[in-house]
Amino acid sequence: MLGSLFRPLSILLTASLVWAESFSGTMTTVEVLRGPEETGDRTELEQLASTVEARIRQHREGLVGARPLVAQILRDDLGFLQAEQERIVLRGGGDLTINTTRFILHQGRVLQISDDARIQIDRNRNLALAEVAGTIRPLTLAPLPPPTGDPGRPGPQRLGQATIARTASIGGRPAEILTLPNLPNPWALGLLDGGAEGDLHGVLASLPGLPVQATWNDSGLTRELRVTAIEPGPVDERLFVPWATPDP
Prior knowledge:
Helix 3 (43-63) runs antiparallel to helix 4. This protein has helices spanning 2-5, 9-22, 43-63, 68-92, 186-189, 200-205; strands at residues 24-34, 95-106, 109-113, 118-122, 127-132, 135-138, 153-158, 161-170, 173-180, 210-218, 221-232. The chain is built from 6 helices and 11 strands. The chain has a single domain (2-232), classed as outer membrane lipoprotein receptor (LolB), chain A, CATH 2.50.20. It has an 11-stranded antiparallel sheet.
């Protein structure tokens, strides 16, 4: 059994590509901030957290497809807002879900539905479109990243399947990442141009198979991205009809 986890990397990559073409269904992910032990009265902190989350969503909406100068300003503001979010979790403790994303996959295409946007990806057509606040914007796909040369080691079971574990660097901090080798990687298929080196999505995109959990420490907090559900099944082709974009 363990021997099957350590097939040559080229075979794993081939399997991932085959599954990307053959898998149809939905994957759901959450991103969580985890603070120290939860304090007693959290009402005011939760209200403040809701306000900060709303501002973060607004900035993320503006960031999708923004021109470089505007994007840099929004990223700077996002950094401040995310730092405020972290302080709230540090003071209040407990877990805070900061984002939920559904990936609908069909024959190598991806529809990504998050809290602040929908993104339609079709690499066969070199097509990437985002819908933010009712507006359709074209995006630029990044080339598929070179795969990691780390074959990994046996990891714990997740979602009833054996994983491969690897240690990587996310934002300069060590992260433990678990993957399922026989499932497609939606972060690779949906990788967009303009991502920072070492950012979460770029690191996940470089891994063969499906990253089902990534965990790392950041300034006293634990950050975790995990896949909570994988639901194979038929997908409506109409979801992948390219959306109409405004005339330039």
